[in-house]
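Before the break, one more example. Copy the sequence into your notebook; we will annotate it together after we see the structure.
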Amino acid sequence: MTDTGVGTLDRAVAVLDAVDRGARSHTHVVAATGLSRTTAHRLMKALEAHGFIVFQGGYGYRLGPRLLQLGARSLQEISLRVIGHTALERLAAVTGESAQLYVAGTYGERVCIDSVQSSSELRTIVPIGSRLPINAGSAGKVFLAWFPDVITEELIELGEAPTEATPTGDRLRRQLTTARRVGWASSAGERQIGVGSVSAPVLGSLGELLAVVSISGPTTRVSRIGAKRHAPAVMTAARDIERALGVSA
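Here is what the structure looks like once it is written out:
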């Protein structure tokens, strides 16, 4: 546990770190942090009251929406959106489709923090600030493929299918495995009928997921076949953002 001289804060952060690493119960947190049962209980109740952790029946404790909101807002307000915009403009120009940058929002959602619209008259529009389901669409698949397994499994089990084309259960799990193997994901009519998309992850130095880059357009252009044609450009945009962020290869 890091010692900054501010004991209560250090202990609270230790609890958050323990939950982030998979501690799902009070007993697990005590074992992971070395805190007394009384101290751990007091801190966990305070963190839960502020929305930093939440308890879900049948699963246990997990990081709460307050952290996700703060993280998404931080990324939106500082470097990621500014640094990523040039790559999005280039991606939209190369593919002819609208380009977006997403981060994880509150549990079960992704947030569009930047968007560059296609110059085509027939195009898709995702306004900045849009909150979309994380279990549908190619960007959602990338989030699920790179999230920790326990979070992914919970979201798969809780997720609903917005269209008949939305993969669920084992079919979705197979697609996530493929996405991790090839480095990108696609969808056609899975979040919204008539809309196709291709997405790739923006990763940090330790392989952690920072954001997701996407293009989207009508399925007449962004179909399963079209996705394969656009995937290299989407992955290039993701790598360009990583380099701009100073992520070492």
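The radius of gyration is 19 Å. Residues 166 and 190 are 4 Å apart (CA to CA). Try to locate both features in your own notes.
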